[in-house]
Amino acid sequence: MSHLIEEVRKQQPLIHNITNQVVMNFTANGLYAVGAAPVMAHAKEEVEEMARIASAVVLNIGTLTKEQVDAMILAGKSANQAGVPVVLDPVGVGATTFRTDSANRILQEVKVTCIRGNAGEIANLAGVDAQVRGVEGSSDIDVQKLAKLAFETLQIPLAITGEKDVVVDQGAQVSISNGHPLLTKVTGAGCLLSAVIAAFISVSDHVTEAMSDAISYYNVAAEKAAEKHAYPGSFQVAFLDQLFEVDGAAISKKKRINRSL
Ligand code: ATP
Ligand code: TZP
Ligand code: MG
Ligand code: MG
């Protein structure tokens, strides 16, 4: 059976990103390397139209303003009406009240297809006390327990990423242990992953399978890039190259996945 990455490359889904100012260029280049078509459109005057014609929409609150959150809600509602999947990246939730309130507002008004965040962000979204410093979460959380609890609270398929990644939905939990610490030295490694997840879910009928396939693919690409380069700058470039190069066979060979109830 062919891997979903081959389907993304065939269909070249249009991914509408309302994302932060730090990662816009990296996200666009990353999506091109994956084989998707990126578009960044933030103005409230156009987001509904763009979301409607997109294959998936990414809402990322990394450098949020009140106006941008309003635009995200317009885009999300329009995507919902058109049956377009919506991915939420709750960057920095828990660090400030504005971020937490804005993410909760989005979740109240938009039917979000899935969420991807680090453990601290997901914990805060689910009402569990955890430390978030800026955009980085704390690492001393039991992610499998958190994933179960967060799904019970939010009732939305979600991925918690970090050294190990966990994808959870009703009755299923997948744990993925690929990746490389150099990803933590590249800003936007999480944000781009959320956009890649959007590309994968747009070409699949199974949200959590698409999420875990996207994470395996992404983290195998990171491992292959780290085999060639040990410093963040050259790693970042090599990583984009590997997102372009890695295929289903390479993923099957390297992926480390554990499924549990
Ligand atoms: P943070 O701001 O806390 O760094 P983030 O939003 O950037 O969070 P991460 O959790 O860092 O997102 O995940 C981004 C990617 O990096 C994922 O593919 C994840 O699996 C990978 N990753 C993060 N930390 C590690 C690590 N220590 N070892 C291997 N892979 C990692
Ligand atoms: N500050 C606000 S958004 C942002 C920073 C550094 C980028 C966060 O990217 P990621 O993918 O969460 O590391
Ligand atoms: Mg990171
Ligand atoms: Mg992040």
TrEMBL record:
Q: Does the keyword Metal-binding apply?
A: yes
What EC designation does it have? 2.7.1.50
Q: Give the residues the record marks as binding ATP.
A: 116, 161
One of its Pfam families is HK
Cofactor annotation: Mg(2+)
Instruction: Write out the GO MF terms.
Output: ATP binding; hydroxyethylthiazole kinase activity; magnesium ion binding
The record's listing under CDD domains reads: THZ_kinase
> Which family, according to UniProt?
Belongs to the Thz kinase family.
Q: Spell out the protein name for this chain.
A: Hydroxyethylthiazole kinase
Gene name of this polypeptide: thiM
